Structures are given as structure tokens and as C-alpha cells.
Amino acid sequence: MIDISFLPHPGLDLTGTTDAGSVSEQMLRFGSFNYGLKFEVDGKEFLSGRGKDPILDFMLYIAHSVPRVRAGESATLEIFSTTYWIRIAPQAQGSVVLITDSYGKDTAQCAVAEYFTAALDFLRAALDYLMSRHPSLEGHVLLERIRNAAGL
Predict the structure, then answer these.
(1) Which of 66, 36, 31 shows the shortest CA–CA distance to 49?
(2) Residue 83 to residues 40, 52, 131: CA-CA distances in angstroms?
(3) How confident is the model at residue 122 (pLDDT cuts 50, 70, 90)?
(4) Could you tell me which residues are beta bridge partners of residue 97?
């Protein structure tokens, strides 16, 4: 079982503006929307959901991981402002991905199809949530990059 989810911290969405659509891509990726991110596989917590990390940056990494893993390539999910990363690596048999982290404390695996489902469900839920709170984000280049990379 894989759980990729988020815990919003609405007070950490945006500061100083009500027009999210006019905010730079860099500010959206690294200076806004700091939420609790959870990435858990079979009870092994790679991200606990207790932190406050930039969700849009994480979403971009998740989105880029989908086509890479689909092509049989490894993908790395980096967590901004830390040296921590999570690696998703398809195994030789092609139906399983091995999930490791930079600390070497956890290793898990799940079916490739299960990873795709969790990744795409996470992206859809996060996009829906962000759009419901900040409709002016519609059409923002960053959200389009996320959608396009994941094929949404």
C-alpha cells in the first residue's frame, strides 16, 4: 500500500497577494504552499506529513517521475531545502518499483501500477485543492508543466 498525500497549512499558502496567477513560478515552487507531505509505502514513512514543505515543487517531481518510471527509468523526488531525496527505481522484471531514500533508513517496493495510481491521485487531489482555494492559478505555467509532465 502506498500513500502519497498532503496536509494543507492554509496560513502558509501565499502572503501579500490575492492573485496567485501573477506570482512567479519560482515563488510558487519554493516560497508558497508549504504543506505537510506524506509518502508512505507499506508502513515505511519516507515523508511523515508533519513537515512544511513546498507542495508545488514536490508535485513537479512527482509529475516528472510518472513518464520516467513508465519508460523504465529511475526518478528522484527531491525535498526542497534539505538534502533528502526519495528514489523510485523500476526493477528488472518491470512490474515493481524499489523505493529508497538518501538516508538509507528505509527501503520498500510496490507494484508499478500502484505507484502510478498513487502519484496521479495525489496530483489530482492537490491540483483540485489548490484550484478550489486559488482559482487565479488556472493556466499558470507551473500548473500546466505539472499537468503536462504527468499526462493530466
Answers:
(1) 36
(2) 19, 15, 30
(3) very high
(4) 90, 110
